Amino acid sequence: MNQDIDIKKVRLNCYRQSKVPGEFMLQMRVPGGMVDAKYLASIEHIAKTWGDGNFHFGTRQTFDITGIKYEDIPAVNAYLEDYIKEVDAALCGVDMDTVAHEPRDWDPQSGYPTIGARNITACIGNYHCICGNCNTFELARKIEPIIFPSHYHIKINIAGCPNDCNKAHLCDFGIIGVAKMVYHPERCLGCGACVRACEKGATRVLSLNKDTYKIDKDPCCCVGCGECVRACPASAWTRRETKFYRVILGGRTGRQTPRTGKMFLNWATEEVVLGVLKNWQKFSAWVMDYKPEYLHGGHLIDRAGYKKFKEIILDGVELNPECLVAEDIFWHETEYRSNFNVKPIAMHQTAGPRE
């Protein structure tokens, strides 16, 4: 059937174009990758009623339902009303009547109002994993109403520990759960288990004092992984009750200029992380002159320059005493070169800060 389809409008509604003309894939948000199993029945219903009977676990932990015909999108959106209200609105506290801090009238049967801020992904965190330093999906649900809905693009990955199973280093804004350790020498057996764990799986900052048979620590390079806590048989190492986070900035994949993110904040509390993200919309709007484009956070930082980014993103944020902020950041992008004797492909040069 020949029909005119506004691909951009449909995409804004969280539908992705298929290679089959007139067919689309719905991306259902699952903030933090954790949702009640009862919603699997909804996935099945959509897939079998309007899709091709299949769904894909999206790389951003969305339920991607394939094979939806363009003419069926209104019916799918109407069916999504309860899911969006229960997951995004009730569970995460998202205000669907506001997009990028601007009021709008949201029709509950119109589906998602925007695809701008991507679904926040997370590993399982300390809900289950013995390495986890934080509850990742609870943090994701607190972040969701800050960044969504918005036409400004940002990708956020949350990892429960420095193992970074969720690739916080490869997105616009990566959050890693870290811990401050407390050493209790009166409990220490001098067995050296923590030293061996740090040496094998972390940054080798622990050593066994041969005179006292207690542990010496060089705090310079501790990444807050908690391996010493896991290894100790006598609980001589414990995590501080306060949760801390490392924030990684400006990482990205892609064809043209992929790069690994760099550390922006270290030992930041949850309040600091949330405060920083509350300034993300303001920063994005400033860089883009209040005209949203399909550009992700790393590219926006490149446009503004790190100094200006830091000025805006930390505005009004009260840093906790332990929090460290990068003085400057220099990203290293991949430079593709030919196997032949020709000049390397010219890298795109970003504009400097605006006056």
UniProtKB/TrEMBL annotation:
A Pfam family: Fer4
Assigned keywords, A-Z: 4Fe-4S, Heme, Iron, Iron-sulfur, Metal-binding, Oxidoreductase
Keyword 4Fe-4S: yes
Family, similarity comment: Belongs to the nitrite and sulfite reductase 4Fe-4S domain family.
Spans through the membrane: none
Organism: Lawsonibacter faecis
Any one Gene Ontology molecular-function term assigned to this protein's record: 4 iron, 4 sulfur cluster binding
Gene: asrC
Protein name per UniProt: Sulfite reductase subunit C
